[in-house]
Amino acid sequence: MGSAFCEDCLYHPHKHVGHQSLRVYKSSSRVGLRVKSIRKLMDVSDIQPYTCNSSKLVYINRKGRNDHVNRMNGRKVDKCEVCGHELQCYSSKFCSIECKVQSEIEVEETEKEEVGISISTTRLLRVDPNSFRKRMRKGTPLRSPFF
Predict the structure, then answer these.
(1) CA–CA dist 128, 111 (Å, integer)
(2) How far apart are CA 102 and CA 93, in angstroms?
C-alpha cells in the first residue's frame, strides 16, 4: 500500500526518485504553497495570494475565527465567501484552498439536491490544526512550596 499523499507510491512504493512533490512553506503561523507550483494542479486565480520572501503563497487552511480582525475604517471590505475573513485583493473570492474546495463541494451538493439525488456522506473532512495536542508543550513550571 502506498502513501496517501503520493499517487506515484501506489505503483512504486519504495522508489521516490521520480515522484513529483510540492514544497510546503510556513508563513505567519500558517501553511501555504507557492502559486507557481500549485497552479499546475488547480485553479488558484480566485484565492487571495500572500507575499513571503518575494514569492506568492496561497494558504492551505482557512484562518481561525479568533484571528479575524475587522478593519473597516469607512471602506468597503471584501470578505471570503465561505469564512468571512477580510481579503486584501478585490478580485479574490476565497482566503485559502480549504475555503475554495468547501465552496465547490457545497455547489456540487446543491446541484445534486436540485436533481433529486440525496447526499448522505460528507466528502470533506475538516481537521482542526490545534486538535492534535491537548495541552501546551511547555507551561509554567510547578514548584513545590518552600516551607
Answers:
(1) 28
(2) 13
Let me know if 67 is exposed, middle or buried by CB neighbors in 10 A (0-12, 13-18, 19+). Answer: exposed
Alpha carbon 146 to chain centroid, angstroms:
49
Q: End-to-end distance of the chain based on CA atoms, in angstroms?
A: 60
The type of residue at 127 is V
**From the centroid of its chain, how far is CA 38?**
13
Lowest mean pLDDT among 17-21, 32-36, 91-95: 17-21
Chain segment 98-122, per-residue pLDDT in tens: 999 999 998 888 887 776 644 444 4
- Contact predicate 20/7, CB 8 Å: no
Measured CA to CA, the distance from residue 38 to residue 97 in angstroms comes to: 10
The CB-based long-range contact list for 47-55 (8 Å cut-off, 24+ gap) reads 47/92, 47/93, 47/94, 47/95, 47/96, 47/97, 47/99, 47/100, 48/80, 48/87, 48/88, 48/89, 48/92, 48/94, 48/95, 48/96, 49/89, 49/92, 52/25, 52/27, 52/28, 55/25
